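## Example pair
The file below holds two records. Each record gives the amino-acid sequence first, followed by its structure token line.
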Amino acid sequence: MQTSAVQKEYDFVIVGSGLGGLACANILAMEGHSVAVLEKNHQIGGHLQVYSRDKSIYDTGVHYVGGLDEGENLYQFFKYFGILDKLKLKRLDEEFDVIRFGDGCEYAYAQGIEHFEQKLIEYFPGEAEAIRTFCAKLVEVCKKFPLYNLETAGESYLADEAVLSLNAHDYIASLTDNVRLRNVLAGSNLLYAGVKTKTPFYVHALIMKSYLNGAYKFIDGGSQIAIQLSRSLRQHGGKIFKYKKVTGANYDEKGRITEVLCDNGETFRGKEFISNVHPSVTIDIFGQERFLSVYKNRVLALEDSISTFLVHISFHDHTFEYLNYNIYQHHIDDVWGGIDYDPETWPQTYFICTPSISKKGKYADSMSIMTYMNAEETAQWAGTFSTVAEPGKRGEEYAQFKKEKEAKVIARLETVFPGISATIKSVHSASPLTFRDYIGNRNGTMYGIMKDSTSPLRTRINTRTKIPNLHLTGQNVSLHGILGVTVSAFVTCFSFIDKEKLIQKVKNA
């Protein structure tokens, strides 16, 4: 294109405006670099997106977040970005998560590691030693991840095979013969789509400990993180371009990217490029021939975590009281079993929360129910595509499929909250296809590439690629979730900014 010669060249062009892309953009812009973020959809934020139906606001991915008590890791990261005091937050109850089983028994997780430990010992007085050992292990493992503790010294966990290969299910099972306690300790494993034979204990530990360090909801939705990060970025001179779907790139003779190409013919020139898109999709965009076969084959062969079916119900006014805690409901005794579900008895395990809405007070405006769904269930419509930016139709059969699934979820919900059906005003749902189309990943995976304790380094994705000026960020680099992705953005930026100085700025924020 003729325009390329006179076009602005950015220091950094970032593909994708999910949290990883926005966090990288902010870090780099705050250090004085010129930054452009390209987003294919009309709404920025990836999993931070919200949508509204019938005047109710629904989160697509962020239902609550940890590490937000004063001085904790995410608290400091948000302070560094200058957005903490602009976020509308609601701290969850001291007993913030309830693990509930089909027999009606409930076990609460309490905020703070000491309270968590005490509460569990109240439920299982004969298991005090196992519970204390578990809590000590949580703390010990989390110490092995320097950035999680806002430290830079050493990447000890990468050299520590024992940390990476410790399996979550097996470690918990080794602590006690009490099967119910084992299931309570792993009861929130929907947070990372836990797989009994694969999920490493460090995934369980990092995520669980962050929630114990201050669990909060975002009042009126998690999209405010993206909104505040985008405002901050613009204040530092960065730019965000929507409706820019990147489909390819041009290269110089040294194999460096000179510009990316969008599907509308536009190009964006840059010195360095960061992809916040799933690694396998990144390979497709930037040209399979540009990557070493060994790398390409390894990435394309990696297994993604399962997708989800998300049901949103809105309530008639003043009919259902707001819950300032979450419920992990298991209709089967084995909390790891819901991922290999039988379609006949689905959903066997799911997450329940009521979003915090500023105008509603005592009563809930809506409820979100999140459960596992294999992408194969929606495979017959895999050839369709539908977003607000590119509306498409999936047809009547798909609508019927969703209705039937919604009815199954609500029937299950009746066993938890008898009579809830009478309070429901409307129902909406999102399938693996919705997540695939909006987030731009394979199969609508919720948490990206699955970590595997049996071969931990094979599932590790480096931020640097063999294309000299192409880097990766996002949930596949370190860990998913608000905290994991924020950490991954810093890891990506360490290629360009002195990490000691950068983390010191976070600590001093």
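Second record, same layout:
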Amino acid sequence: MQKSIVEARTRLIEQHDPAALSDLYKLAKTGIVDAQTALGYAYDNGIAPAKINPKLAGQFWQAAARQGDAIAMHNLGVLYWQGRGVPRNQPLAETLFNLAGSRGIGRSKAILGQLAEARHDYATAMTHYRDCLPIRFLPNAKTRYSLLLMRTGDMTSPNNREEVYTQLRAAADRWDIDAQYTLARLHAEGVVIRQSLPDAVFWLEVLRRNPAAKKYWSSLDDFVQAYKIGETDIQTGKEMARMWLGDDPKIIPAVDYTRSILERESIF
């Protein structure tokens, strides 16, 4: 049975095979959770021949969530969070994210951190972000954790300063734009981490190559002027960036927390 579900999913997602959609429908009607979750994903994302229909996606995910499927719980939470296909209901969305997060869905924990942070419940946000730290594909959770640690923690503590740098660097290496910009700023100011204008320029140059960093591009030259970075430091930083980036850097796209997922992702 599991093999038939995987084959049908693959034919639908990769080949857009109309027969695969029909096969998944038949499996979903018998209560097969994986088929219900896959159909929800297809209708939420408009994977041909399915057309975008968040209401129908929500119905499939609701059926799977009732059977305890964590991915369906997360995806249904996204719909209630956004009010797509269902009435907007943030308390219900948070309940679903909590259930999914307790079953190993890291994206749910990251969203819970964002929601707690938005209502200034920083202790709860830190708890959720901390749970995300081992998950490599959620670098922005590391960044948010670091920024909150700087806001609420004792920055005279060497351990806290080291923790901030470690998590920001891990996030920046995974191409999180906010981590990259924060490292540039901290290096320029000598706050939390040692002052190093070449290192500040290094991260500015990395941002220039990061297609997700458009919101920062127009301000990068102003950054250099604001911190009065001299030509020697600029050239040193640019050379550091050139050596690190190479000719064709592998830029890891940011995770979009507002989109549904099809399956669990490895923490590695």
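Notes on the second record: Residues 158-173 form the longest helix (16 residues). Residues 92 and 228 are 50 Å apart (CA to CA).
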